[in-house]
Amino acid sequence: MLHEYETYLQEKGFSPNTVISYLNDVNQFLKDLHLRPGDYVTSADIRKWIQQMLNPVEGKPLAISTINRRLNSLRSFYAWAVKHHKLEQNPMKDIQDLKSADEDNEKIMWLTEEEFEDLLHRMRKKPVQSRGVDPEEKYRRDRAVVYLLTYAGLRVEELSNLKLTDLDLEMKRIRIVGKGMKVRTVPISNILLAELEDWLKFRAEMAKKKPHVAESPYVFYSQRSPKFSVRGIQRMIESYSLPNKKLTPHMFRHTFCKWMLKATNNDIEKVRRLAGHSNIATTSRYLKDSYSDLADAVEALPKF
């Protein structure tokens, strides 16, 4: 039954990582409650599982975002099972996502303008740890990656798969193949255009020296591969983290959404389209002020 569901997800165009994530979540649910895929499940079973995740016998409770992701995976699985007559009842019918407190929403982390400027400075100064790596080549590539993530809001998988033919510098736009093979077009700002032109010019020089670069159809490559892998990008971004702030590729996408809302005077629909969100509720999360924003507001109160 799970194999059929896996085939269904693949045929719907879900990325391999998404398929694995959905299946892992469903399998975790079945394992935790000692169930099989075709067993009769009720909403009470789901609520019991939620309580187990919130109050585990051992270890820390799961984050609200993780629990909601798992519930979404179950929602997809049981909707498919009922629709294809594998099961008669959908136990997720009355199960809502958990509401999170303000502190939980802080996990949607983005960079301030000062933090972004500091990151660029640290990238320029950070020594290369690996032998045989050209410091200038690494810096130029890493910088271009960070600018694309921040000024175009790409997901890490989208960035890894980005091809040279997806860039139209003359028309100043990027073609992005997102989740579920959905294609969106994002305009290239003048700031991003300058960075891309600089990188592509340097990349062309590297292509004369390295065969795997010359043969690569992708915008970004690694030391030995024609494609900069998702894990490679993640490791690169993490390497620039500060002790008190771990950096992830998705943090730059959050930054793009947050900065775009400010730039568009909170025009959620524009940001939703640029970010490729299917649901506007996803975009609306960025309307919530950060704790530092709230602290600044409190400090701005009249002083007597």
UniProtKB/TrEMBL annotation:
- The Tyr recombinase domain, residue ranges: 106-299
* Assigned keywords, A-Z: Cell cycle, Cell division, Chromosome partition, Cytoplasm, DNA integration, DNA recombination, DNA-binding
- Which PROSITE patterns does this chain map to? CB, TYR_RECOMBINASE
Ranges for domain Core-binding (CB) come to 1-82
Q: Which domain of life is it from?
A: Bacteria
Q: Write down the SUPFAM superfamilies for this protein, in alphabetical order.
A: DNA breaking-rejoining enzymes
Q: Where in the cell is it found?
A: Cytoplasm
Record protein name field? Tyrosine-type recombinase/integrase
